[in-house]
Amino acid sequence: MHHEQHCGVPPENSPRRLCMPSMITKDASIPVATTIFRLSTRGYKRSLLTPFLPPVDARLSIPQLPSLTMVRIALSAAFVAAVIGLASSLSIDARAPVHASVKKISTVTDSKNIVAHDAARLNGYFKKNSKPLEARQTGSSSAINEIFSYIAEVVVGSQTFDLIVDTGSSNTWVGATTKFSAGSTGKSTGKSVEVEYGSGSFSGTEYTDTVSINGLTVTGQSIGVASRSEGFEGTDGIVGFGPEDLTEDTVSGVSEVPTFTQNLVSQGVIGENILGVSFAPLTGTEDEATNGVLTFGGVDDSLFSGELTYTTRVGDYWGVTVSDFAFGSTSLSTTGVQGIVDTGTTLIYIPSTAYTKFLSASGGKLDNESGLVKFTTEPTANLSFVVGGVTYTLTPAQYLIAQSQYENWGISGTSGFYATIQDGGSEAPNTILGQSFLEFFYAVFDTTNNRVGLAPSAA
After folding, report:
1. Bridge partners for 238 per DSSP
2. pTM tops 0.90, yes or no
3. Where is the Peptidase A1 domain (predicted)?
């Protein structure tokens, strides 16, 4: 068998002569032509699916016709299979990462209440302290709600809710302020749902509904509809981006419920269960700004500088091992501790031993009026953390609250300098890399590969 260029006899009255490669056998030549086309992600035309076969040469004998038919069928099947395969491949490739903007807001009137909120979340939620909520709080219920939050606009059914972006929990729920009204896609499962966050809580009924963030849509998403909530005034609830394990026993009669990002993957909306998070501090005197970006299904190289370094997730949350803390050239701790990367915590928490050394080395003191570490003289040394063998450094300008933001933090007067560093205690977990850390470092929460990635934010 060999290949050669073969020209078939053109149809009667045809102005064109058809030339195409053909397979020549010792019995006869059967010309076969196919349309040559360019694949585009914009779609396919129906005509591209069908091979073009010129009319059979009148000189072909009848016994040769079945052979032509078989060739036509074989080529048609091959083309259909090839296009289906390519379409499938292109469908996967088309699921590129998608971005959604998030807004930072403040409900703060007193910095002591930020400290109270974060301490209650650390001790009552992350450390699973069994004391009643009231015994853990250092302020009133309404005061505990005074926090900085990153808010995503989330469409549930036909309603839009402002939900806190929380990588420290995994349930998605609504109804804290704007009440939920089930539409045609919302259906009650009749099951109860309840989550305790240390700094607040909610309880209500589970529904399934269509949920969308910036056009990324899943159907049948489990959501909690609050009949009671505490500590979430000014927001509508939470969209949880933590590991699925954190939903365990939160819905009656169900072990766990899939998160929003898990459903994005299982329903083919994104290719991988990866969430990239970019935050930025408020500037000047602004008390809110759309200054955050969530990237679903991958990462955005433009939002960080240098290399992303990944470390295997540890513990129940988005946990990382922090192997060292240092203030300038002074080591604060060389004992590895479990830290949590958490978008729902405002401050940065470090172990008691490191905190005590930090105060001694920096000259800072706990200020009872603000609840924050205060300096009479501005520090000049950097504060660093080692995660996954990489050192992440905060400059004084980054771990100190900008003086233009004192009013938004509820800090009276303009004298002194205040840090976002807090005492995390000795009981693990005692290290929280909250918003005050994440506003300077891009973070990747990679469920697909069970790891956390960090890199300096883009300048």
Report:
1. 164, 173
2. no
3. 150-455
